[in-house]
Amino acid sequence: MKAVWKTKAAMKAAMNTAVARARETAPFAIRTERGSDVAARERLLDASFGTDRHTRTCQRLRDGRVPARGLAFAALQHGRLIGTVRLWHVSAGGVPALVLGPLAVDAASRSLGVGAALMEHALTAAKAQGYGAVILRGDPAYYARFGFSTAKTGALALPGPFEPERLLAVELRSGALDNAWGMIVATGDKAPRSRVVGRARKLAISAA
């Protein structure tokens, strides 16, 4: 029995070592976003889209709101945030849906497939939570691989200038956007006032 115990202990130690090494060599991991990720996320978004990103059309759907619960994700490599994506509650002409964005990946890490992994993770999580559709504004050629198209967005509009061919959607439940038409508006929970004030100050500084 003693010999068997030692063998099992050795096997367990070897397995633990293998798991630890795998984690060390893994290119990146995806998890739910934490409060400690916010500063790094904002730096990444500034680097990806510019410090004037808060003036963009889709930002109107996020201003003063918080992301859908459990649908904000971070990609990390050795503890460093290298990717981000979040989803937000909206009404698509009266039809409940989610808007995805922004999706951003650190420039030095884009060859790892981080963006695609974040997209798949976010869509899988949204479907698992029972959501019917996800909408975004983006490059049709890139997002087609995830099922996004203009098939259900022709009668929808954004609260600001946009190119109709870049307003895309994917149904996570067949027919979820059949009756969607009109303006897409934010419906998510309001962000704490301190966060809204902080965002306003940042905008004022960037505009100065």
TrEMBL record:
<dbReference type="InterPro" id="IPR000182">
    <property type="entry name" value="GNAT_dom"/>
</dbReference>
<dbReference type="GO" id="GO:0016747">
    <property type="term" value="F:acyltransferase activity, transferring groups other than amino-acyl groups"/>
</dbReference>
<keyword id="KW-0808">Transferase</keyword>
<dbReference type="InterPro" id="IPR016181">
    <property type="entry name" value="Acyl_CoA_acyltransferase"/>
</dbReference>
<dbReference type="Pfam" id="PF00583">
    <property type="entry name" value="Acetyltransf_1"/>
</dbReference>
<protein>
    <submittedName>
        <fullName>Putative acetyltransferase</fullName>
    </submittedName>
</protein>
<feature type="domain" description="N-acetyltransferase">
    <location>
        <begin position="28"/>
        <end position="169"/>
    </location>
</feature>
